[in-house]
């Protein structure tokens, strides 16, 4: 049965993170200096259509795009069986300003999201400058820390794995025909989808009871339900998790349980 969930826009974040990794690529051309390579999300066929567009007497909507540039898109989403954890695990996150209450998020579910990065250029020098900036970064993975993926205030390490590369140069024709080189790099992002958020309470008092005869523990509990010895650990009323040395933690031996 489906219930309340923590909508953290995991796929939207994955797309934003992946694009950010490659949004500062630059090439150097003799005589013109350094040029930034733009990147955008979109299907490869759409960009190829724009590249091949006729620029003669064209409207703004059909003008061919400037090269070099890059595009990327989601190509697959598959369940990651190797990274699956116990579904009964839960994570607790404190609610700011509300002492004693937490947000409880169910165990996240791992998925492999396939991403394809395409590099378009008119000549080999441009495309190889971009290509050779990317390859050394992935050996074969590059890990990015993503906030709030598995709950409010969480930080999740998301590996981006480079699986394969390929290139395409189908230039045929006269010297006037526009040439386009395409280098494609296939990646896998290991993301996690979290859901099932509920409100929980922070445990502030823990009572422990000790019995000497563990073989007859049940009989001893009838005679002395609070144990032969007992210990109570109390956390300050205004202290919030995670606890540290600035919080008040009191230990009482032989506490008054009446």
Could you explain the architecture of this structure?
There is one protein chain. This protein has 258 residues and is mostly beta strands. It folds into 2 domains: 190 residues, STM4215-like (2-Layer Sandwich); 50 residues, no CATH class. Helices cover 15% and strands 40% of the residues. It has 4 helices and 14 strands. The strands form 4 sheets. The protein has a 6-stranded mixed beta sheet. β1 and β2 form a beta hairpin. The N terminus is likely disordered.
Structure, briefly:
With 258 residues, this protein is mainly β.
Q: Determine the CATH superfamily of the largest domain.
A: Myoviridae tail sheath stabiliser
Strand order of the largest sheet: 3-4-7-10-9-8
The name of the CATH topology of the largest domain is STM4215-like
The number of helices is 4
Mean pLDDT: 80
Largest beta-sheet details: 6 strands, mixed
Tally of distinct domains? 2
CATH secondary-structure class of the largest domain: Alpha Beta
The helix/strand order is HEEEHEEEEHEEEEEHEE
Task: Describe the oligomeric state of these chains in a short phrase.
Answer: single chain
Helix content: 10-25%
Task: Give me the CATH architecture of the largest domain, please.
Answer: 2-Layer Sandwich
Please count the beta strands (DSSP E, at least 2 residues each).
Answer: 14
Rounded to the nearest angstrom, the radius of gyration is 29 Å
CA distance, first residue to last residue: 42 Å
